[in-house]
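Any chance you could type out a protein's amino acid sequence plus the matching backbone structure tokens because I've never seen that pairing?

——
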Amino acid sequence: MAPRVNAVRNAHLILKFLADQQGPAGVASIARATGISPSSCFNILKTLVELKLVNFYDETKAYTLGTGLFELANGRAANQALFAAAQPMLTELAIAYSCQTGLWESSNETRTLIAMGESQSIASLNIRIGQTMQEGSGSSGKALIGKHLHDKKHLLAAYEAVQWQGEMTFDKYHRQVSAAVRDGYAIDRDAYYSGVTTISCAFDVSFLQRQFCVSLFLLSSWYAQSDLKDMGLDLKARVKQLAETVQTSS
């Protein structure tokens, strides 16, 4: 057997550890969990950051999985234009509404969070890159599943697969999906997660042959119901511009 390359093995241990975390982790906790010396751990993380396999947050000196990992996994070098255009918009939205934002990629009956924007807000939700969700859950699910609006059997199956924390009947779900198709954005207030409001807008990137969705993640107590429409319209306008920018750059 050929000798093991410890640097590669240690990089794999670090990536695997970060994939299992619910949020960012610092060097000390990563080194302790993986058994890698802090100095070696720091140097490997620095390289992984340069390769965009890991994200580094200067404010907290912590790390999470990066978008480069998903590019490798799916062979999507073509996504670079999308990430380049989306990341500034995600950050701008997060700062504008003191919230967290995310870019989802839809695939079959799930979607994966592939990019995030964050503000300096004290409160934050437990959201991380690489997180997956069921097809019809939350506002992003309602926005994305609109293409199946006239397939009631499909909608019912997606609705029943979700463990709703708030009150959500199928009739209400169907009305909200219909509204998302009509308005160009979807809202979920305390239905999927109690105390959490999300607003989402889906869009297609034809040359990638994939569907994406941008979401705002909000603490419900911070925003009045009357604010959500204007936020949805703002999100819709920004996502339209994002889609046009990406298509132009292809």
In short: Strands lie at 25-26, 54-57, 62-65, 100-107, 110-118, 132-134, 186-189, 196-205, 210-219. The chain is about 45% helix and 20% strand. The chain has a mean pLDDT of 87. The two ends are 45 Å apart (CA to CA).
